[in-house]
Amino acid sequence: MATFKYIVNQIDTNSISDVKNIDSKDSTLIGNFEISSTYDQSIHNIELHFYAFDGTLLKSIPNFKNISQLGNAAGAGKKGASNLILNPTNDAVSNGFENGDVKLLYRFTNNLFSSSNKQPKFFIESISADRTEVRALSNQLTDEQVSNSTIELKNKLNSTSYFSEYFLNFGDGKTFIGLNIDTEVISKGRSVVLKLYQPLDSTYTVNNTFTIEEEVSNEVLFEVQAEVISDQLKIPYLKGPNFAVEVTDENSNPTEYLNYNELFSYPVTSSYYELRSLFNDKSAQIAINHSDYSDFIHFSSAEERLRNFKYKLDLIHSYQSSIDSINSTGYIRTGITGSLDYYKNLIEGIVNNFDHYDRYLYYESGSTSWPKGNTTRPYITQLSNTSEATTWYTNQLVSASNYDVTNFDILTNTIPTFIREDSNNDPYLMFIHMIGQHFDNLWIYFKAVSDKYDADNRLNFGISKDIVRSTIESFGIKLYDSNQNLDNLFSLLTGENYISGSEVISSVITATSGSGSEYLQPVPKDNYLKEIYKRIYHNLPLLLKSKGTERGLRALLNSFGIPRDILSVKIFGGVKSDTNLFYGPNYYVTSSFEKIRTDNTGSITSGSTLSRYTSISKPQVKYSDDSHTVEIGFNLSEQRDSYVKNSLSSSKFSIDDYIGDPRDMSATEYRLLDILDENTVDSSISRNPSGFVRLVKFFDNSIFRIVKDFIPARTNANVGIVVKPTILNRSKTKTPTVSWIRPEYIGSIDTAFITGSHGESFGSEKKVRYNTNYSASYKTPLGVITRDITDQSPRYTGEFSGSATVVSTMELNAPNIFKTVNQPLLQFDVTIFNLSLPIPPACNITLVSTYLGEYYVFYGESNQGTVEVTYPTSEAATDTSITYVNNHNIYEYVTVEAAAQYGYTFDGWYTEASGGGSLISTGSILTLTYPYQRASGSNYYANFV
Q1: Nearest in space to 165 (alpha carbons), one of 139, 124, 196, 143
Q2: Is 277's pLDDT higher than 50?
Q3: Can you name the residues that pair with 194 across neighbouring β-strands?
Q4: 743: helix, strand or coil
Q5: Is the pLDDT of residue 829 over 80?
Q6: Does position 877 have pLDDT exceeding 80, yes or no?
Q7: Is 912 helix (H, G, I), strand (E, B) or coil?
Q8: How far apart are CA 871 and CA 886, in angstroms?
Q9: What does the mean pLDDT of the chain come to?
Q10: In degrees rounded to 5, what are phi and psi of residue 781?
Q11: CA-CA 20 to 30 A from 284: which of 366, 655, 726, 824?
């Protein structure tokens, strides 16, 4: 939206053609001088006219009142104000000219034919030919008023002190100056004849109306211009963190939005009356024992209050009978005496003004309240003419009368006896009883001041249920709103049976059935919440002293009426690992006493020790680590866990036996643990999440917020609905594998060219020539072979015929008894094929073996079905058998597929022929890994039926 800056200037009135002024020539003759005058709001009038800049009239306000004046604006010794405050900007904006560019003409006038601010008008009877004379009549003034006002105006005009004029105001901003005036009697009555300064415009004819006025002050004209203020570009900056903000766990869940009519558009019933009565009670409901008159009656009369209630009850029943009669006849007109709304309003007027004793007699059930026609809420009050009500009323009147006689503080004891015994003074006695009841209402609240320190846990005793929450919070205990206060007003304040809606409920069980308290149902949710507050207030010393302990949490849960077997306090960690059943280090214990442990055994350690008390061996850990986690909630998987514990209780069980198998390193789950979980747990015991959440909604969820304030700050609290894995569920990821390459590079560099000789060890070449060539025989599996040495190399190598050859493993540390080669030597029996030549002494023979792979045999059934290897290589389908070897270091798995022939169906893979042994898989495609083969063997039989 655009923002304007307004510029206001006062300009000359001559710029408006509607303003008629004296010509400049005549003005020179007359002369100008100022006359002091005042503005009297009770007599004078202000006109406001809006003009465009071209002089076009836009709007007129004939009786403008939006002015103000200062406290010292009054004229000296005169009535009225000499200074007025005008605000042209506000006047322009308030009349729709917020864009400016408008002229405002203020005209201050006084009607010469009226002594007040009324505006009597005249109408034109005739106009002279030159249109400077007008004869006019008035049907709003008498002839006498016209004559007297005209004479007064003539005297003023004939005064020689200064030139005075009047003007004719036609109401549309047009005025004409008048110079003289007189009266004339014509057949239509006494008329006024007016002489004008200028001719009357042709637009005005006979019967046009006008007023005869004079100016109290000169007209003022303002020009208002508007300049648009351009919007400043504001760059948004992020504010810094507010460390002082209070973080709260409060969750405000509003109820549905209802207007007043929807809120009270319920059938007119006892619950409806009780609800209206509670709304009109502005005070706190203090604890009053209505079965004892002395607890709430001190100055008034118990008998009179009982009779007064019976009178109100009869009126309500009478009005209700009229309503029933109207409903039966179908007459539903509203808003008149005797209509349906008429009687409803009468009943509401009575119940809205019920005091605490009236509400007790009308809405509650008991031996001291008015007899009821049913035993559950909402109660139906019996008519006063029933036998049960008559008997009760008669007996109660006797009790009330006896109490009044023995009550020395009754206010009527202050009245002399002769006045009380005179029946003519009964209205006075009635008035005294009313005064006494008024003081009783003050007395019970004065008496209840000390009840704040009465920590009675009962709802209607001790401290008032309406102030117990604020009292608890004054001790530093924070209370939270509950989901129980989101119901409708009837359920919250008066009690209402559960409304299931579309949900089918076959049976309803009353919570207090068999306890003798069935009449309390249904309990108002507001009373339920306040009863919890009363219990907390009653147990406040225990809760504060045991804060942060399991005992304190248990006392808090008991205050909400939740027993141990429904909501337990679970503490995690500290579980003994060598027990028969061990489900992991973080499994919970149900009591802090289980965390208290002593170990007096093993104080003297065995083994190699440096001292009697210090061992170099690691001590055995008997308990898992403690965890700072407390769980107070409803666990969705608790029933399943309990079933598992009971199923495994007969044998020793440790979770470590199922999650430490190295064969599962490359798997995404613990296969054996999953099989155990499937075989142990019956799927029928699993809880339905939606049904579980529906059940939990009936609990007061504020308990899950307040328990966080009663545990240590370092504790992790799991409260409310707890969703977590079951006791046998363990998440697992596939173990990553690492591959690496160690490249080795071989190269040579020519450094020099060296020649050598035998150094004449075998004689000079020229003198003696020894020959070192020879022939040698070697035994091989193929027989004896001959090797001829003809290059005289033995001169350099020293290998002569008949010498012993030493074959080395290149192991330089063979004599070291503590060092062995990495791979074991394979032991074989060696057979000599040819014994013609002796074996060289100290001969070591090394044999090398090669791993070919795992050995598989797949069997089909003749004329029934075939088997076929499809990966890593393809083996043709056959109905006999396939022998296949796979190196799992190269190919991770083998895939074989079974196909049934015509007339047969594949049944499964078994460890023995014809469906014998163990069933391996029911799928026709079988994938075999090394761990799978290790568990199921090497023979796989496809069975067909």
Answers
A1: 196
A2: yes
A3: 134, 181
A4: coil
A5: no
A6: yes
A7: coil
A8: 10
A9: 78
A10: -60, -20
A11: 366
